[in-house]
Amino acid sequence: MKSNTLTIIKKEFSRFFGDRQLLFTTVIMPGLLIYIVYSLMGNGIQSMITKGAEEVVTMRVENMPQSMAPVLTSIDSSLVVIEQPFTDEDIKQLENKDRNDVLLRFPADFDNILTSPIDPTVLPNVEIYYNSTNNASSRVYMIVSSMLNNYGRPFTVNAPQSEGQHFDQASDDSIGAMIWSKILPMLIIMMLFSGVMAIAPSAIAGEKERGTIATLLVTPMRRNELALGKIVSLSGITLLSGISSFIGIVLSLPKMVGMGEAADLGFHYTTSDYIVLLLVILASVLIMASAVSLLSALAKDVKNAGTMVMPFMLVVMLAGLLPMFQDGASANIAVYLIPFFNSIEVMTAVFAHEMEWLPVVITMATNIVYTGVAVWGLTRMFNSEKIMFSR
To answer: Which among 31, 171, 177, 257 has the fewest CB atoms less than 10 Å away?
Structure first.
């Protein structure tokens, strides 16, 4: 019995370690996936912190107390402190997320108030106006508010003095745009990839496994027509899945985050935004279906195709994570020449209300060209008996 058990163990070990693809996806890929994803997250967070720390922020201070002057001016070398009164119009200008400004207002004669006997019913209030959608402004706000809260003497920070007073000048629309631009591109790209994975391997690798690919190859049609038909049909089916997923996301996310209707999160987009989004989703589906079709054509069966697509899934996951560690879409045009990453960047720009037509055109053209290359490659594979009839 022991000998039989050892024989089975050796047989299974031999099968496992003899299959390099299975060995890679089972042993190597999990650790590699965790390392790459966590490294990307760490580098992205560090990059955001470094970028925010390097941006110069102007902080205008009204009624600067003598006790606070040396403290505020020594916070950060990138912080420029100016003693200057400001008006309600100056506060309103903070709505522009590109302004790296913070406005700080102390009560008049602040130092004398703090040295007077404490009246817990009437505490001095310090006001800090900022924009939470601007990383630099938000960073300085957190530093200054934390410093004031730990000052050691009782006073309030940003306690509303009147109904409707807001210290964060970011509009609901800009806050919502920032949230959607970081969440939705990842969800959409993963939904699209799931749709491709559900049908693409069986459409080509499944044909090989069942032996029906031979029937298709002997029909009176050109191989490039067969390749194009496979990719377009897979893309069409996946597009329907992607549209369904997108509608579900749009309808469910506002409720999921507990903020009521979508309007509360600033989900305000134009018809052109939705058209661009639909075009980018279509371009993404084309390139995804093309890539999975190529890998499926190389596979021996559906199971093998699933194994071969796993590294590709890693690339898609990494692309989907990018918006979480960026402040809006990239301004580097070269990024829009990279498949998958370009679609993510355009979707990020659309949801952040930062869409420009040049990146959209480059993304569409690039993905169509890559799809054409994939059709050519798949045609070559269909012409290869060694690939099509491998067992």
So the answer is: 31
* Alpha-carbon span 109 to 300, nearest angstrom: 81
What's the burial of 329, exposed, middle or buried (CB within 10 Å: 0-12/13-18/19+)? buried
CA-nearest of 201, 154, 228, 155 to 300 is 201
Place of tokens 């000048």: 169
Name residues whose C-beta falls within 8 Å of residue 7's C-beta, 6 or more positions apart in sequence. none
Give the β-pairing of 156-157 and 125-129.
Answer: parallel
Share the mean pLDDT of the chain.
Answer: 78
At 386, list the tokens. Answer: 């060694």
**Do 76 and 53 touch, CB atoms closer than 8 A?**
yes
Query: pLDDT for 233-265, tens place per residue?
Result: 888 887 787 777 677 766 765 565 555 444 455
d(CA 384, CA 358): 39
The CATH number assigned to the domain with range 56-170 reads 3.40.190
Note the pLDDT tens digit of each residue in 69-112: 888 888 777 788 889 899 888 888 888 877 788 999 988 888 78
Distance, in Å, from the CA atom of 340 to the CA atom of 58, rounded to the nearest integer, reads: 38
- Measure the CA–CA gap between 258 and 260, rounded to whole angstroms: 6
Backbone torsions φ then ψ of 149, nearest 5 degrees: -65, -20
What DSSP character marks residue 168?
A: B
Q: Where are the domains of the chain?
A: 1-54, 56-170, 173-388
Per-residue tokens: 357: 């037509």
Q: How far apart are CA 260 and CA 293, in angstroms?
A: 41
User: Per-residue pLDDT averaged across 215-230, rounded?
Assistant: 77
Distance between CA 32 and CA 22 in Å, rounded?
Answer: 15
Strand stretches in the chain, DSSP E: 57-62, 79-83, 101-105, 125-129, 156-157
Mean pLDDT of all residues in 222-236: 80
Q: Diameter of the chain by CA atoms?
A: 97
